[in-house]
Write a structure and sequence with these properties.
- Two copies of one chain form a homodimer.
- With 196 residues, the first copy, chain A, is mostly helical.
- Chain A has two domains: 50 residues, Arc Repressor Mutant, subunit A (Orthogonal Bundle), CATH 1.10.10; 139 residues, Orthogonal Bundle (Tetracycline Repressor, domain 2), CATH 1.10.357.10.
- Helices cover 70% and strands 0% of the residues of chain A.
- Chain A has nine helices and no strands.
- The longest helix of chain A is centred in the middle third of the chain and has 27 residues.
- Chain A is elongated and about 60 Å long.
- Chains A and B meet through helix 7, helix 8 and helix 9 of A and helix 7, helix 8 and helix 9 of B.
- The structure holds a DNA duplex (30 and 30 nucleotides).
- Chains A, B: GO terms for molecular function: DNA binding.
- Chains A, B: InterPro entries: Homeodomain-like_sf, HTH-type_Tx_Regulator, HTH_TetR, KstR2_TetR_C, Tet_transcr_reg_TetR-rel_C_sf.
- Chains A, B: Pfam families: TetR_C_24 (PF17932), TetR_N (PF00440).
DNA sequence: GTTAAAAACTAACCAATATTAGTTAATGTT
DNA sequence: AACATTAACTAATATTGGTTAGTTTTTAAC
């Protein structure tokens, strides 16, 4: 039986449980035996499906990172206005976070435990992502749509909010995505002060 | 020779190096031997100064958490206006982050590895902190100073930025604190959009 | 039904690590 | 100088955890 049964393949189950455990206990804190138990088998049996513990982390983190990079490339290269691009990037973050909060959480906090070569690739992807976002912000600033501010700091502020979103999703389950989008865009773009 | 020599006592050195290592490798990823090496002794010798590995984490995390809680209590109880209180809370975050970024980073990301009882206390402190901040925001909202929005979400947005600050400090070393304060307050309060 | 592959299990290995025990060197006090 | 305390060291223990080897059961194909 090849992985033709798609979604619920054994390896998928393992990846899902691994993601959950890596997220709650951390990569180092979660053991293969714990993962195996969650998926209903003995520890060493995992090796019929995976190559190593690191492979699990690698798949979870790198897939997400590549997806992210791919999607922002599209936005960056599009012919949208700068403000619309910013809007899309925010939506992108929300979408990927809502679809797979575990992978998102992992990508942002456990990437340090990737093996050397992949850690390098990850950093490259992340830097590329940040640079594209920065260019969009610079463009918007140049066109006079956003306020004058140190671009790096503005980028940091926006990303810190977007990157914390998975924690929010974990705490307040039944938030509707559109509501979150509305709040986020309002908060980031207009701040919290009431207009004088 | 009791710890009368203050700052540079052996235990302080150990705590400092432990903080750095816990931060970069994570609590589980950093070994006592590595800490010992950094401070110039063999692993087991650490036990002449500490009770356990967990004690190191405990001191680093809980001290910071208690300090945080203490300080926001003062602000919450003060007779300042709601907007001024918000202002002070932002300054508080910046101050504690700049003074001890390692402890801040640890408190926010490694608290999960505290032992059961202390983890409970930590969560209590954190919840109390968040509640006080929330009350301040509600008050400001009630008085019409800040925009109408789900308070929990607003709290989340502000905190996510403030709590990421240590990462910013790590990347861009020589940022002046006043500059950061100005940017942060502008960004949080007024957003990034230029007034129409 | 026989056979071959996939996927489970058990037992064992090996490395790392927190921790304990026991010992020795350094330090300071009387 | 003698003694007690502090703080270092080395050796050893117990546990955990990733991984391998070898074997048995389950599954699917002919």
């Amino acid at each position: 039986m090849k992985p033709t049964d798609g979604l619920t393949s054994r390896k998928q189950q393992i990846l899902e449980q691994a993601a959950k455990l890596f997220r709650t206990r951390g990569f180092k804190g979660a053991s293969l035996r714990q993962i195996a138990e969650k998926v209903g088998m003995e520890g060493p049996s995992l090796y019929n499906h995976i190559k190593s513990k690191h492979e699990l982390l690698s798949i979870l983190v790198m897939n997400n990172a590549r997806e992210f990079n791919h999607r922002i490339n599209e936005i960056h290269a599009s012919s949208l206005s700068s403000l619309d691009k910013i809007d899309r990037v925010i939506s992108l973050h929300i979408e990927l976070t809502v679809v797979n909060p575990d992978a998102m959480s992992l990508m942002l906090s456990e990437w340090t435990h990737l093996e050397a070569d992949e850690r390098l690739e990850y950093v490259k992807l992340r830097d590329s992502y940040e640079n594209q976002f920065k260019e969009i912000l610079e463009q918007a600033m140049f066109e006079g749509d956003v306020v004058q501010m140190d671009v790096n700091f503005m980028l940091f502020m926006i990303l810190s909010t977007l990157r914390s979103l998975y924690a929010w999703c974990a705490r307040y389950k039944n938030y509707n995505r559109l509501e979150m989008e509305a709040y986020l865009k309002q908060g980031i773009l207009k701040g919290i002060l009431k207009k004088a």
